[in-house]
Automatic annotation (TrEMBL):
Domain Nucleoside phosphorylase: 26-251
Annotated Pfam families: PNP_UDP_1
InterPro entries: MTAN, Nucleoside_phosphorylase_d, Nucleoside_phosphorylase_sf
Protein name: Nucleoside phosphorylase domain-containing protein
Lineage, opening ranks: Eukaryota, Viridiplantae, Streptophyta, Embryophyta, Tracheophyta
Domain of life (superkingdom): Eukaryota
GO biological process, alphabetically ordered: L-methionine salvage from methylthioadenosine; nucleoside metabolic process
Annotated Gene3D superfamilies: Nucleoside phosphorylase domain (3.40.50.1580)
GO molecular function, one term: methylthioadenosine nucleosidase activity
Length: 272
Protein backbone atom coordinates (compact mmCIF):
# COMPACT_ATOMS: atom_id res chain seq x y z
CA UNK A 1 0.00 0.00 0.00
CA UNK A 2 1.29 3.46 -0.87
CA UNK A 3 2.05 5.65 2.12
CA UNK A 4 -0.46 8.46 2.82
CA UNK A 5 2.01 11.08 1.62
CA UNK A 6 2.20 9.53 -1.88
CA UNK A 7 -1.58 9.26 -2.15
CA UNK A 8 -2.23 12.86 -1.26
CA UNK A 9 0.60 13.97 -3.55
CA UNK A 10 -0.97 12.03 -6.44
CA UNK A 11 -4.38 13.54 -5.68
CA UNK A 12 -2.83 17.00 -5.60
CA UNK A 13 -1.13 16.41 -8.97
CA UNK A 14 -4.40 15.17 -10.48
CA UNK A 15 -6.22 18.29 -9.23
CA UNK A 16 -3.51 20.56 -10.68
CA UNK A 17 -3.65 18.74 -14.01
CA UNK A 18 -7.45 18.99 -14.12
CA UNK A 19 -7.29 22.72 -13.37
CA UNK A 20 -4.68 23.23 -16.08
CA UNK A 21 -6.77 21.45 -18.69
CA UNK A 22 -10.14 23.02 -17.89
CA UNK A 23 -11.11 26.14 -19.82
CA UNK A 24 -10.42 29.39 -17.99
CA UNK A 25 -13.68 30.42 -16.40
CA UNK A 26 -13.10 33.25 -13.93
CA UNK A 27 -10.83 36.20 -14.63
CA UNK A 28 -9.83 38.82 -12.08
CA UNK A 29 -8.67 42.14 -13.52
CA UNK A 30 -6.91 44.29 -10.91
CA UNK A 31 -6.74 47.97 -11.86
CA UNK A 32 -5.48 50.76 -9.56
CA UNK A 33 -7.18 53.88 -10.90
CA UNK A 34 -10.83 54.59 -11.67
CA UNK A 35 -9.84 56.33 -14.93
CA UNK A 36 -8.08 53.14 -16.01
CA UNK A 37 -10.88 50.82 -14.85
CA UNK A 38 -14.03 52.50 -16.19
CA UNK A 39 -13.38 52.06 -19.94
CA UNK A 40 -12.92 48.31 -19.34
CA UNK A 41 -16.04 48.17 -17.13
CA UNK A 42 -18.10 49.96 -19.80
CA UNK A 43 -16.78 47.88 -22.66
CA UNK A 44 -17.79 44.61 -20.98
CA UNK A 45 -20.98 46.18 -19.63
CA UNK A 46 -20.03 45.08 -16.15
CA UNK A 47 -22.13 46.10 -13.16
CA UNK A 48 -21.01 47.14 -9.72
CA UNK A 49 -21.57 44.49 -7.05
CA UNK A 50 -23.96 46.07 -4.53
CA UNK A 51 -23.50 43.22 -2.05
CA UNK A 52 -19.76 43.38 -2.26
CA UNK A 53 -17.67 40.27 -1.90
CA UNK A 54 -15.53 42.45 0.38
CA UNK A 55 -15.91 43.32 4.09
CA UNK A 56 -18.19 46.27 4.84
CA UNK A 57 -16.50 49.64 5.14
CA UNK A 58 -13.62 49.00 2.74
CA UNK A 59 -13.37 51.29 -0.30
CA UNK A 60 -12.66 48.43 -2.70
CA UNK A 61 -15.00 48.14 -5.68
CA UNK A 62 -15.88 45.07 -7.75
CA UNK A 63 -17.57 45.18 -11.14
CA UNK A 64 -18.63 41.92 -12.70
CA UNK A 65 -20.45 40.28 -15.56
CA UNK A 66 -20.29 37.48 -18.10
CA UNK A 67 -18.60 37.96 -21.44
CA UNK A 68 -18.15 35.12 -23.93
CA UNK A 69 -18.74 32.50 -21.21
CA UNK A 70 -16.10 34.09 -19.00
CA UNK A 71 -16.86 35.47 -15.54
CA UNK A 72 -15.13 38.83 -15.69
CA UNK A 73 -14.35 40.71 -12.48
CA UNK A 74 -12.73 44.12 -12.44
CA UNK A 75 -11.59 45.18 -9.00
CA UNK A 76 -10.37 48.63 -8.12
CA UNK A 77 -9.09 49.57 -4.62
CA UNK A 78 -11.36 52.62 -4.63
CA UNK A 79 -10.76 56.07 -3.21
CA UNK A 80 -8.67 56.73 -0.11
CA UNK A 81 -11.15 57.09 2.73
CA UNK A 82 -9.69 60.33 4.06
CA UNK A 83 -8.25 62.07 0.99
CA UNK A 84 -10.63 60.90 -1.75
CA UNK A 85 -7.97 60.10 -4.34
CA UNK A 86 -7.43 56.70 -6.01
CA UNK A 87 -5.71 54.23 -3.68
CA UNK A 88 -2.68 53.62 -5.89
CA UNK A 89 0.43 51.72 -4.79
CA UNK A 90 1.49 48.37 -3.43
CA UNK A 91 -0.42 48.24 -0.14
CA UNK A 92 -3.87 48.73 -1.64
CA UNK A 93 -3.02 46.51 -4.62
CA UNK A 94 -1.96 43.60 -2.44
CA UNK A 95 -4.94 43.94 -0.08
CA UNK A 96 -7.53 44.05 -2.84
CA UNK A 97 -5.83 41.20 -4.71
CA UNK A 98 -5.81 39.08 -1.56
CA UNK A 99 -9.48 39.74 -0.80
CA UNK A 100 -10.48 39.12 -4.44
CA UNK A 101 -8.58 35.85 -4.71
CA UNK A 102 -10.22 34.65 -1.50
CA UNK A 103 -13.71 35.65 -2.59
CA UNK A 104 -13.65 34.89 -6.32
CA UNK A 105 -11.12 32.04 -6.77
CA UNK A 106 -9.97 33.30 -10.18
CA UNK A 107 -8.29 31.03 -12.73
CA UNK A 108 -6.26 33.93 -14.00
CA UNK A 109 -5.34 37.44 -12.83
CA UNK A 110 -4.71 40.33 -15.18
CA UNK A 111 -3.06 43.36 -13.60
CA UNK A 112 -3.77 46.17 -16.05
CA UNK A 113 -2.76 49.80 -15.77
CA UNK A 114 -0.39 52.53 -16.78
CA UNK A 115 3.37 52.63 -16.43
CA UNK A 116 6.34 54.85 -17.01
CA UNK A 117 8.56 53.65 -19.85
CA UNK A 118 12.27 53.90 -20.56
CA UNK A 119 13.01 55.11 -24.08
CA UNK A 120 16.54 53.71 -23.79
CA UNK A 121 14.90 50.26 -23.56
CA UNK A 122 12.53 50.87 -26.49
CA UNK A 123 9.38 52.20 -24.76
CA UNK A 124 7.27 55.00 -26.26
CA UNK A 125 4.13 56.84 -25.13
CA UNK A 126 1.01 54.70 -25.79
CA UNK A 127 2.93 51.43 -26.14
CA UNK A 128 1.18 48.50 -24.47
CA UNK A 129 3.49 45.99 -22.79
CA UNK A 130 3.03 42.46 -21.56
CA UNK A 131 5.53 42.12 -18.69
CA UNK A 132 7.79 39.06 -18.76
CA UNK A 133 8.67 39.38 -15.08
CA UNK A 134 8.17 41.78 -12.22
CA UNK A 135 10.29 42.94 -9.27
CA UNK A 136 10.43 45.73 -6.67
CA UNK A 137 12.90 48.63 -6.86
CA UNK A 138 12.35 50.31 -3.50
CA UNK A 139 12.89 47.48 -1.02
CA UNK A 140 16.60 47.59 -0.38
CA UNK A 141 17.73 45.19 2.35
CA UNK A 142 21.53 44.70 2.05
CA UNK A 143 21.71 41.44 4.00
CA UNK A 144 22.24 38.12 2.21
CA UNK A 145 18.98 36.52 1.03
CA UNK A 146 16.90 39.39 2.47
CA UNK A 147 18.25 41.38 -0.51
CA UNK A 148 16.57 38.89 -2.87
CA UNK A 149 13.39 38.90 -0.76
CA UNK A 150 13.32 42.70 -1.11
CA UNK A 151 13.67 42.57 -4.89
CA UNK A 152 10.87 39.97 -4.98
CA UNK A 153 11.44 38.86 -8.57
CA UNK A 154 8.52 36.84 -9.97
CA UNK A 155 7.77 35.57 -13.44
CA UNK A 156 4.58 36.52 -15.22
CA UNK A 157 2.57 33.64 -16.62
CA UNK A 158 4.28 32.96 -19.93
CA UNK A 159 1.83 33.34 -22.83
CA UNK A 160 3.82 32.95 -26.05
CA UNK A 161 0.86 32.62 -28.40
CA UNK A 162 -0.99 35.53 -26.86
CA UNK A 163 2.09 37.69 -27.22
CA UNK A 164 2.48 36.78 -30.86
CA UNK A 165 -1.19 37.17 -31.68
CA UNK A 166 -1.69 40.53 -30.01
CA UNK A 167 1.55 42.03 -31.20
CA UNK A 168 2.26 43.68 -27.85
CA UNK A 169 5.69 44.72 -26.69
CA UNK A 170 7.37 42.64 -24.01
CA UNK A 171 9.62 43.88 -21.21
CA UNK A 172 10.48 43.61 -17.54
CA UNK A 173 8.37 45.57 -15.07
CA UNK A 174 9.76 47.22 -11.94
CA UNK A 175 7.43 48.31 -9.11
CA UNK A 176 7.78 50.89 -6.36
CA UNK A 177 5.55 53.16 -4.30
CA UNK A 178 6.65 56.43 -5.92
CA UNK A 179 5.71 58.01 -9.23
CA UNK A 180 9.05 59.76 -9.48
CA UNK A 181 12.47 58.10 -9.48
CA UNK A 182 15.26 58.89 -7.01
CA UNK A 183 18.87 57.81 -7.78
CA UNK A 184 18.57 54.75 -5.48
CA UNK A 185 15.45 53.59 -7.30
CA UNK A 186 17.09 54.22 -10.65
CA UNK A 187 20.02 51.96 -9.70
CA UNK A 188 17.60 49.19 -8.65
CA UNK A 189 15.48 49.60 -11.80
CA UNK A 190 18.64 49.28 -13.88
CA UNK A 191 19.61 46.17 -11.88
CA UNK A 192 16.10 44.81 -12.55
CA UNK A 193 16.73 45.43 -16.29
CA UNK A 194 13.27 47.02 -16.47
CA UNK A 195 11.69 48.63 -19.53
CA UNK A 196 8.61 49.83 -17.65
CA UNK A 197 7.92 51.06 -14.12
CA UNK A 198 4.64 51.01 -12.18
CA UNK A 199 3.29 51.13 -8.62
CA UNK A 200 1.42 47.81 -8.27
CA UNK A 201 2.67 44.93 -10.43
CA UNK A 202 5.13 43.20 -8.09
CA UNK A 203 2.67 43.51 -5.19
CA UNK A 204 -0.08 41.77 -7.19
CA UNK A 205 2.50 39.14 -8.21
CA UNK A 206 3.44 38.54 -4.56
CA UNK A 207 -0.15 37.70 -3.58
CA UNK A 208 -0.84 35.74 -6.77
CA UNK A 209 2.27 33.65 -6.13
CA UNK A 210 1.13 32.74 -2.60
CA UNK A 211 -2.09 31.30 -4.03
CA UNK A 212 -0.47 30.03 -7.25
CA UNK A 213 -2.82 31.97 -9.51
CA UNK A 214 -1.20 32.62 -12.92
CA UNK A 215 -0.96 36.32 -13.61
CA UNK A 216 -0.27 38.54 -16.60
CA UNK A 217 0.61 42.24 -16.51
CA UNK A 218 -0.68 44.58 -19.22
CA UNK A 219 0.80 48.04 -18.92
CA UNK A 220 0.33 51.09 -21.16
CA UNK A 221 3.02 53.77 -21.14
CA UNK A 222 1.89 57.28 -20.08
CA UNK A 223 5.29 58.90 -19.55
CA UNK A 224 8.91 58.50 -20.48
CA UNK A 225 10.97 58.22 -17.32
CA UNK A 226 14.30 58.93 -19.05
CA UNK A 227 12.81 61.78 -21.14
CA UNK A 228 12.78 65.56 -20.82
CA UNK A 229 9.32 66.20 -19.33
CA UNK A 230 8.52 66.10 -15.60
CA UNK A 231 6.90 62.70 -14.89
CA UNK A 232 3.76 63.88 -13.08
CA UNK A 233 2.98 66.45 -15.79
CA UNK A 234 3.47 63.98 -18.65
CA UNK A 235 1.50 61.29 -16.81
CA UNK A 236 -1.54 63.55 -16.28
CA UNK A 237 -1.33 64.89 -19.82
CA UNK A 238 -1.40 61.42 -21.40
CA UNK A 239 -3.55 59.50 -18.91
CA UNK A 240 -6.89 59.72 -20.77
CA UNK A 241 -5.51 58.90 -24.23
CA UNK A 242 -3.29 56.07 -23.02
CA UNK A 243 -6.10 54.60 -20.93
CA UNK A 244 -8.10 54.30 -24.16
CA UNK A 245 -5.21 52.33 -25.69
CA UNK A 246 -5.13 50.10 -22.62
CA UNK A 247 -8.87 49.45 -22.84
CA UNK A 248 -8.47 48.45 -26.50
CA UNK A 249 -5.77 45.96 -25.56
CA UNK A 250 -7.64 44.48 -22.63
CA UNK A 251 -10.98 44.23 -24.44
CA UNK A 252 -11.60 44.79 -28.17
CA UNK A 253 -11.47 41.23 -29.49
CA UNK A 254 -8.09 41.05 -27.89
CA UNK A 255 -6.90 39.69 -24.59
CA UNK A 256 -10.18 38.68 -22.96
CA UNK A 257 -11.80 37.30 -26.09
CA UNK A 258 -8.72 35.27 -26.60
CA UNK A 259 -9.13 33.48 -23.27
CA UNK A 260 -12.59 32.18 -24.08
CA UNK A 261 -12.37 28.39 -24.43
CA UNK A 262 -8.65 28.38 -23.64
CA UNK A 263 -7.21 26.23 -20.89
CA UNK A 264 -4.29 27.31 -18.75
CA UNK A 265 -2.17 24.66 -20.40
CA UNK A 266 -2.96 26.06 -23.85
CA UNK A 267 -2.37 29.56 -22.58
CA UNK A 268 1.08 28.80 -21.24
CA UNK A 269 2.45 26.35 -23.73
CA UNK A 270 0.86 26.33 -27.14
CA UNK A 271 1.92 27.82 -30.41
CA UNK A 272 -0.62 26.97 -33.07
N1 LIG B 1 2.37 54.84 -13.77
C1 LIG B 1 2.43 55.64 -14.83
N2 LIG B 1 3.63 56.24 -14.92
C2 LIG B 1 4.36 55.81 -13.88
C3 LIG B 1 5.68 56.07 -13.43
N3 LIG B 1 6.48 56.90 -14.07
N4 LIG B 1 6.09 55.45 -12.31
C4 LIG B 1 5.28 54.61 -11.65
N5 LIG B 1 4.03 54.33 -12.03
C5 LIG B 1 3.56 54.92 -13.14
Amino acid sequence: MAPHGDKSHAAEEAAVSQAENSPISTILIVIAMQTEALPVVNKFQLTEDPHSAFPSGVPWVRYHGIYKDLHINVVWPGKDLSLGVDSVGTISASLVTYASVQALKPDLIINAGTAGGFKAKGAGIGDVFLASDVAFHDRRIPIPVFDLYGVGLRQACSTPKLLKELNLKVGKLSTGDSLDMCPHDEASITANDATIKDMEGAAVAYVADIFKVPTIFVKAVTDIVDGEKPTAEEFLQNLAAVTAALEQSVTQAKIITWFSGTSLKQLTTMWF
